[in-house]
């Protein structure tokens, strides 16, 4: 088992706004009282195998660390696909907590559909919130989500808005959620056809990555999450990208030891970024969304038949090509990135991603990305492998050229 510790110091301050207010108030002969405070967040990400085996006390040990004068309730929400592939999971969870006296397992283990559809269905969100009410789950209790990133997003959002925040434990079951989404602080659901339109920044109390869950993934699901590792390597860690290039074939062949390293290294890089910068995205910069502006739009345009990781791979290819045709990245480096994606089994082109003119459907993703960021577009491009560069506009003619260049490979 590997163990990472992540501490986030999130400082809330409004210096610029308050200065503007002060200037205004001076003109109107008014006064102002300023408030400034800091909030410390800390949670651990654990890596293990067979989390609910009776001999594995990792989860119990964590729960016992949080002392309480009352019996703590724990409520599980499980991805339907995970439950179908691990038919014994319900029984395992019940047996795991059968002899506990300080932790009361809620009798219902709720099963919800997985995949992006989970985030498109308002009734699922309300079903979880209703369960919080039905079982009197309070802020000292736990809501545990087991599943892929979409289910974790859904359950995390329900936990964050119920009682203004219930302790949330994530147990991700896909490569994508283990190496990226589950270890962050974002939760959300889709609304009005827009990805993550409703959401919160609410850190979990812990994340437990159980590598055994990865063994039942389809080849497409296994591959899908690797794109987020490629992304973070390209903007932050050239040696990690070199490792990915060297190990692309064995990763595609489902080598578990290679995957364990990928998950832990990618998770660590994502955590380091979140802790060191702007975890609640109070500014406009979102470096970890490299390749995502078009990926999010492609998911929507395809009716979410294109998996998030597959869409991200296509977005990485397009933005790497744009980095090349705009003079930021060498053609050799751009070709190297595309070759790695191909070796991993990804497609680098899709009819909905082709950019022929300003009316190309995916172009609308730029404006939606701008809106999601609060009005100022910020796109991460590459100036070198392992080094990102922010820009605030993309040239449509160059996007056409980038799209055409990908078509020649």
From TrEMBL:
Gene3D superfamilies for this protein: 3.40.50.1970, Dehydroquinate synthase-like - alpha domain (1.20.1090.10)
Enzyme Commission designation: 4.2.3.4
Cofactor: Co(2+); NAD(+)
Alphabetized CDD domains for the sequence: DHQS-like
Domain 3-dehydroquinate synthase C-terminal residues, every copy: 225-353
Sequence ranges assigned to domain 3-dehydroquinate synthase N-terminal in this UniProt record: 110-223
InterPro entries assigned: Dehydroquinate_synthase, DHQ_synth_fam, DHQS/DOIS_N, DHQS_C
Domain of life: Bacteria
Keywords per UniProt: Amino-acid biosynthesis, Aromatic amino acid biosynthesis, Cobalt, Lyase, Metal-binding, NAD
Keyword Chloroplast: no
Gene Ontology terms for molecular function: 3-dehydroquinate synthase activity
Protein name per its UniProtKB record: 3-dehydroquinate synthase
Annotated organism of origin: Danxiaibacter flavus
Phylogenetic classification of the source organism: Bacteria, Pseudomonadati, Bacteroidota, Chitinophagia, Chitinophagales
